[in-house]
UniProtKB/TrEMBL annotation:
Its main location: endoplasmic reticulum. This is Endoplasmic oxidoreductin. It is a peripheral membrane protein. It comes from Schizopora paradoxa. The lineage of its organism: Eukaryota, Fungi, Dikarya, Basidiomycota, Agaricomycotina. Belongs to the EROs family. It is found in: Endoplasmic reticulum membrane. The chain holds residues 54 to 454 of 520 of the full protein. May function both as a monomer and a homodimer. Keywords: Disulfide bond, Electron transport, Endoplasmic reticulum, FAD, Flavoprotein, Glycoprotein, Membrane, Oxidoreductase, Redox-active center, Signal, Transport.
Amino acid sequence: RCQHIPTGPIEATSCDYETIESVTEVLYEHLHELVETPFFRYYRVDLYRECPFWTENGFCMNRECGISTVDESEIPEKWRAASLSKIEMPPDEVRNMLPGCYYRDSDFCFLDDPAEGDYVDLIANPEAFTGYAGLSANRVWSSIYNENCFGLSELNLMKSPAPALVSLPDSLTDVLREDGAETSEQCLEKRVYYKLISGLHASISTHLCHESLNQTTGEWSPNLHCFVSRVASHPERLQYIYFDTVVLLRAVARLGPYLSAYDYCSSGTHEEDAYTLRKLGAVIGIAKAVGQFDESVLFRGENANILKEEFKEHFRNVTRIMDCVGCDKCRLWGKVQTSGLGTALKVLFEMDEKTLDPTANQNLLSRSEVVALINTLHRLVESLHFVGNFRQMWVDAPEDE
Ligand code: FAD
């Protein structure tokens, strides 16, 4: 099963597994170098907001759950809280505020108030095994999957009739048939939501299995058994990592001109900024070539807008559920990645070509959104790279293992 390499079309996209496989290593190399640059490695995050849904008491005390923060004095002036709150949260755009966070109507996630939180060096705090598990972790995952329930939320029932299930275009009916799903009337958006979450979950599992601590010997090394039981023995989970990758690549491809015109000036040297742009250009080039996802097949037909609002509402809830994760490092990477996915969804479903024009719309995305988007793509592609390592371990393993 570990050797199994998926082939053929990636569900609900116009891309196939072989194409993604063919670019994985080169894309990984560019992304890996890109996320090490100052612009992409420092992320401002509020890790200490209360869980809004239940009293969280499963706080992880393991050493590996902890993170180190960076003093603001080490961060270039223009990214500091005082400057950011002016740029990132223009008051007239803010529609909905809760203590410490906000969202605009177009957002798929709650964003941290830029005046709150700390800077974290993402390279110094890599996603890895932490030992966070048990009831707390399970409650978070099951709450996230439970958000995948469309047409039933009280809020939307109050606002308007529940959205009707959308008929699938014929071309998509077959490819969404796995998991024993019904095929005649199927809500494509619901399937896409599930794939996005399951792919993220599988990517997190791949990371913690690859950067795994042997609690008997105290050594860090890839744990093949962990990967086989959590990911490889459920082939669809692996497939959803590819699916998420294509979705993010499509968002990066659409954002190409905007990202290329973005101000990466980190008060570093001119060479440093030119290097960042060069690496980014390489990633955008690959994204344009292979990021083939047709976002126009979603949210169309009767009640499309209601369904989209509901999808957004659920996804935003997922980003708030991250405040319930009882392990700082897991919470950090959970926030980065749900925010990265949310940013990609916003780009795909809320922005037309005119909006994406960098000259017309310079403040389209905040720095946090750009950093989260690229780091999330890096995580996903890194997972595919790790999957390659696990396949090799499987080949090299003695017969009786
Ligand atoms: P879990 O991974 O907790 O899964 C729970 C159940 O969900 C499984 O029994 C299975 O039925 C189902 N499931 C599992 N994977 C999938 C999938 N891909 N698609 C659909 N269903 C699935 N731990 C770390 O060590 N390091 C981290 O960085 C880390 N980050 C985390 C971030 C978040 C946001 C969360 C919620 C948890 C994180 N954890 C992390 C914990 C980790 O994800 C597991 O919850 C933990 O290792 C316990 O694993 P488990 O075997 O109980 O199954």
